[in-house]
Amino acid sequence: MTDLCSPTFAELAASLGFSCQEAGGLVEVRDPSALENWTLPVLEVTIVLGAVLALVLAVVRLRRHGDPTTLVLWFGATAYLFVIEPPLYFPAAFGIEEHVDTMFAHNVFTVEFLWGRLPLYIVAIYPLMATLAFEIVRMLGVFRRYGVLVGAVCAGFVHHAFYEIFDHLGPQLRWWHWAGTNPVNQPMFDAVPLPSVVVFAALWPMSLALCVQFFVGRHVDRGRHFSGLELVWRTVVIGLLASLGTFVLPLPATVSGMGSTTVRAVVYAVELVVVTVVGVVVLVRRWVRLRRGEPDVPPYTNRFVQVYGVVYLVVMAFLWVTALPEFFRAVDGVTSTGDPVGNLWYTLACFVVAALCVAGTLTVPQATSDTTPVHARAHAA
C-alpha cells in the first residue's frame, strides 16, 4: 500500500529493518525465526498468551459468577485500541496529516495487520495490561472503599508501572521506533516521549477504568445483572468515552504547553505526580488495613492476575538483563546499532512498584472461594 507510505513512516520502517512498500496487506503472517531479533517472538508470545488467557477467564467468570466486569474491561480496551490507533497509523487517510505526522512505527512481528502498522501483540497488550492493573486495584478493595474516581486513578498508576518497563525497552530492541523530531512526541524522556509516559501509560488506563467501573463494575458490586445487549452497548460506550478521556485528561499540558515544550513537560510531570501520590497513598492504606485483618469490603481474588503479573515481570526482567550489555555500551543514549535506550533507573522504579503491587495482592486475605458470585458477596456485605 505504497500510497500510504509517508516519508516519516518509510524512514522509521527502514530503521527497523523492513520496507514500508513491501509490508504485507490487511493481514500478514511471517516466519517468527525471520524477525528482526529473537526478542520479538518472545514478547509476542508473552503478551498474546496473557491476553487470550485473560479473555477466556473473563468469559468463565461471567458464566460461573455472573460478573461481566473483566469481560467488559477486555473488550472496552480493545474498542479503545481500534478508535485511537488507526488515525495514528494513517493520518493522511483520516485527513489529519496537516496536524499529526507519523508518531512511531512498530516493527513487523509474526502476525501483522494493516500493512505492517499493527502487530497482533499490540492488539493484545491493551486488554492484558488493563486487566492486570484494574484487577490488582480491585483485589485491594479500592473501588468499593474509595469509589470510581480514586479507583481509576490507582488503576492508572499500576498500569503505568507495568507499562513503562516495556516502554523503555522497546526502542532499544527494535520493537518500535519513535519519530523523535515530531512535535507531538516532545519532550522526549530518553528513548520515550513524555506524552507516552503520561498519557498512554497512565491517563488512558485511568480513563478506561473509570468508564468500566462507572458503567458496569459498581452496578455488579451491588448485585445487578446485565443482559447481553446491555453489555454490548455499554462496552461500545466505554471504548468511545475512554478515547475521549485520553483527549481530555492531557488538556492541561496540551493547552498550557502549546508555546513551550518546557511548560508542557512540567505540566505532564505534575499530572503524573498527582496520579502517583494518590496511587501510593491509597494502595498502601488498603494493603495495611487488609493486612491488619480489618476487611471493610468483601474479599476478591483473581489468581490469573496474580500469576501472570509475575510471569510478565519475570519475562521483562529477563529481556532487560539480556539488553543491559548493549545498554551500558551506548554512547549519548544510542547503541552501536543506532537504537535509542530508555531510562534504566525509571524502569527499575517501575519494576519495584509493579512487583510490590502483585505482592500486595498475595499478602492480604484471599477470597475463600472463587465460585461465590459477586452479587452474593455484595448482598452478604
From TrEMBL:
UniProtKB keywords: Membrane, Transmembrane, Transmembrane helix
Domain of life: Bacteria
Keyword Transmembrane helix assigned: yes
Record-given protein name: Uncharacterized protein
Positions of transmembrane segments: 38-60, 72-94, 114-134, 146-166, 197-219, 231-253, 265-284, 305-324, 344-364
